[in-house]
């Protein structure tokens, strides 16, 4: 990584005005117009808010920077300023290099032009020659998987087709700086994996990348450094593992969310809480490959003699990783601790959700998507390429002719 800065920003702020309008009816509107025509035409009351406030940022040439934070924290606004889509209200940003941004479906392409024409247009904007674009063209189309529609105006593309072509152009035409928002979530799972693989190649190729994503596994895999944006300001910036861990811890201590539409009636019994007994960080973070016990606390208000108890573990894509069921379960009135001990839970780092359910014969007693989520923060034992990354993260040793190899 070069010591020179590809992106330099100081004191960035972006202020917006939003209207507050109270509808008092047509009769009152006419009365206001008769009494004071000018005042009635001024419209809604104005409320000022800052989407960004005093943000300073430096990204070195060849660095991959991740931006994380809650929805509405200001991440996309920051990228739009860096992309020169919007101007800051205060502060300044200097970009050194050719920039290509992929922020949201609908930006960057001309809707009346075909996929082929937009590819050449994007390349020209980046300063590439026609010969350079032609050399990459077939690779772009193949990656986007839209061979049959390349001569169709992009206004007729589905959102998935649009984002596939937009990403393929952005990644293959080799801008010096690439800005990418969560838009990749529009694609299907297989395409997202392919995009992550390509992003890894882009990063290794020495280009500067700024990536916004809520998928912390993507951030961990691709980014060397992370900035946590919170409330329009940068709350923390530093090495990926430090900042992501701090962000996950903060999310765990947030106020519990509503139990959601899957919560059962809970009249006979209700799940109260869950925890990891061996956790050294907090009760919801798994940081060991040793034996682990997960405990669910159940408050029983009416005795249950023919209970059916089940528990499942799901990843952030709601795929079931493990599940078990037991019946008949007999429970007297009072609190009960339901514990599961695993020799190990070799899961790749990220967020997971436990589901606990209890039936009494055929009647649902309680069904709980447990909060907060379980965070796996163990050492990574995965293939470096994302397309070979799996759910299991199993420690192992490797020998050649009986000699231990250390990577």
Q: Could you walk me through the main structural features you see in this protein, from its secondary elements to its overall organization?
A:
It is a single chain. The protein has 407 residues and is an alpha/beta fold. The chain folds into two domains: 248 residues, Rossmann fold (3-Layer(aba) Sandwich), CATH 3.40.50.300; 108 residues, Coagulation Factor XIII, Chain A, domain 1, CATH 2.70.50.60. 24% of the residues lie in helices and 36% in strands. The longest helix has 16 residues. It is elongated. It starts with a strand and ends with a strand. The relative contact order is 0.11. About 3% of the residues have low confidence.
> Span from first to last CA?
22 Å
CATH superfamily (homologous) name of the largest domain: P-loop containing nucleotide triphosphate hydrolases
- The CATH topology annotation of the largest domain reads as Rossmann fold
Average pLDDT confidence is 81
Q: Tally the helices.
A: 9
SS strand fraction: 35-45%
CATH class of the largest domain: Alpha Beta
Question: How large is the radius of gyration?
Answer: 26 Å
In short:
This protein has 407 residues and is of the alpha/beta class. The chain has helices spanning 26-35, 37-41, 75-82, 115-125, 130-144, 159-172, 189-204, 216-222, 240-252; strands at residues 5-20, 45-60, 64-68, 90-95, 99-102, 177-180, 208-212, 225-230, 233-239, 269-276, 285-286, 292-300, 304-315, 320-331, 334-342, 350-360, 363-369, 374-376, 398-400, 403-405.
Defining key terms:
alpha/beta; Rossmann fold; Coagulation Factor XIII, Chain A, domain 1; 2 domains; elongated
């Amino acid at each position: 990584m070069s010591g020179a800065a590809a992106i330099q920003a100081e004191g960035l702020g972006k202020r917006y005005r939003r209207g507050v309008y109270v509808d008092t009816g047509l009769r009152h509107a006419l009365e206001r117009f008769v009494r004071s025509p000018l005042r009635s035409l001024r419209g809604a009351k104005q409320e000022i808010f800052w989407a960004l406030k005093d943000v300073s940022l430096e990204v070195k040439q060849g660095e991959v920077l991740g931006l994380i934070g809650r929805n509405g924290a200001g991440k996309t606004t920051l990228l739009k300023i860096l992309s020169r889509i919007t101007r800051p209200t205060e502060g300044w940003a200097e970009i050194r290099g050719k920039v290509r941004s992929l922020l949201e479906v609908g930006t960057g392409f001309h809707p009346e032009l075909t996929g082929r024409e937009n590819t050449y247009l994007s390349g020209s904007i980046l300063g590439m020659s026609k010969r350079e674009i032609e050399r990459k063209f077939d690779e772009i189309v193949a990656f986007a998987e839209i061979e049959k529609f390349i001569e169709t105006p992009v206004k007729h593309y589905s959102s998935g087709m649009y984002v596939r072509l937009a990403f393929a152009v952005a990644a293959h035409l080799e801008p010096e700086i690439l800005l990418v928002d969560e838009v990749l979530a529009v694609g299907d799972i297989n395409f997202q994996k392919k995009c992550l693989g390509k992003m890894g190649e882009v990063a290794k190729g020495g280009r500067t990348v700024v990536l916004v994503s809520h998928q912390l596994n993507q951030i961990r895999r691709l980014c060397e450094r992370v900035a946590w944006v919170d409330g329009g300001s940068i709350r923390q910036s530093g090495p990926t593992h430090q900042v992501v861990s701090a962000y996950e811890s903060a999310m765990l201590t947030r106020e519990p969310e509503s139990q959601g539409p899957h919560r059962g009636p809970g009249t006979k019994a209700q799940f109260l809480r869950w925890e990891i007994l061996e956790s050294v960080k907090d009760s919801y973070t798994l940081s060991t490959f040793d034996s682990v016990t997960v405990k669910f606390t159940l408050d029983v208000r009416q005795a249950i003699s023919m209970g059916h108890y089940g528990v499942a573990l799901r990843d952030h894509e709601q795929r079931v990783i493990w599940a078990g069921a037991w019946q008949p379960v007999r429970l007297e009135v009072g609190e009960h601790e339901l514990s599961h001990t695993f020799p190990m839970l070799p899961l790749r780092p990220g967020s997971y959700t436990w589901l606990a359910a209890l039936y009494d014969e055929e009647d649902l007693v309680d069904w709980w998507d447990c909060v907060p989520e379980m965070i796996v923060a163990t050492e990574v034992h995965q293939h470096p390429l994302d397309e070979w990354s799996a759910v299991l993260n199993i420690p192992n040793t490797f020998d050649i002719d009986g000699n231990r190899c250390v990577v």
